[in-house]
Task: structure prediction
Amino acid sequence: MPQMGYAHRPVALGREGMVASAHPVATLTGIEVLKSGGTVADAAVAVNAVLGVAQPNACGVGGDFFCLYYEAASHRVHFLNGAGRSGARASVEELRRRSLDHLPVRGPASVSVPGCVRAWGMLLERFGTRPLGELLARAIHYAEAGFATTHLVSQATAEQGALIGDLEWRRIYTPNGRGPATGDVLKQPDLARTLTALGQEGPDLFYRGRIAQAIATRLEREGFVTAADLAAHSGEWGEPLVIDYRGFTVYETPPPTQGVAALLALNLLEGFAVGRLRYHSAEHLHLLVEMVKLAYADRDRWIADPGQSSVPVGGLLVKDYAAGRRKAFDPKKAQIYPWGDPAGDTTGFVIADRQGNMISVIQSLFSSFGAGVVPEGTGVILHSRGSYFNTDPAHPNCFGPRKRPFHTLIAAIVTRKDQPVMGFATMGADGQAQFHLQVLTNVLDFGMEIQEAIERPRFLMGRFKPGEPVDVLRLEGRVGRGALGGLARRGHRVQVVSDFFDQMGHAQGIVARDGTLMGGADPRGDGVALGY
Result:
């Protein structure tokens, strides 16, 4: 059992309501909505809108949206798929006609239909009580009057300013050739006008109205998305993925997201007495890393749009399948199961109320500032999620028309005896399933409070730069030297990074226990958890 009391921040406590999000003003906004009688769905839209203003590098109305919603009245977990599809013109042949052998990481060609705004409308229609315009009020205020830029946003703007050539983006974020410094006030008046119009006219403005036309015009020559693609977009309510793990019921978002990887890793891990291992010993970390590798190998082979491909989720999550896969594990030796490159910006947040309702949301532009494309006069940054298609005709995630790309975005909810125990979400692109596994086992196997579970050192497998080995194991510097040496002796390519490494995700979570809500937010980012 690890030493408790490790966290640098105290766990947030409350009984009436709790919000754990990636920015203080967003968390405060969610608390205001809850205190005024709004539902967790109402608060989620308000929080997300503010995050899109205060963290424009990570999320916003030009991206995609997924959530898990635990409904106290029915004891059910609902899944909302707010992912957009590729354009009707999308095909490998069209890429080749344009002399492209892969999808670019930014620019108009990387844009698929943004699903966030339609998802907001669907969430409010089913579980909301407040009009959209009222819920967007704080976001409109911060876009219009400005907000104090955090170090993370300032740094992202400086880094991307040298890479993004879109004139509208540069006009808004790097006027006079530079972006805002930490503490500078950033105003986004075009975005304020867009949000105001959305509040007045509803989501159709984004898919069939003035905003849709501006998006289609901007993408007309270089992109694949048309006005007809925007008009045809719809989100979907569905069923989450679910497994039992040591007496807990763990829910994750289904394909096209990578939630199956987190659940498969838990199934694999269930065959070992994890809680009896010395925490963050070489033995413990080696076990976690190898289970992640096995899960990611299956993830990369199978996950795609289930509407266009047969994804064998049922077979992947059967306990017998995990038992068979577990046989490949060697407790003394690292193995290689290659996967993609960790990259991207996202926001994850969790909201809970006294009645037992809980929502776990993940929303993203994918890369930092998404595609780096802003349709004229809208202030809307379009996401780059389309860049995650591949060009292998034999693979289910191959680039094609009206198809949802594989998504790294995932959200989690844990219940026990049909009551909510935990909600969790984190940014981190490919690393998200790895971070879910680590934080969930910190809570479920080692009994940590949520703040400590989030703060504990994390690892990340993957490639950061082209040409780099895919099996580099990055570990935060707070991991002990003995464990690092033990991992190296097992054959891991260990790389020690900073103590609170930015690429290890910015996680937020809430645990419900005996009528008390306990919130945690990640010191790796700007997040804050508050309860009342």
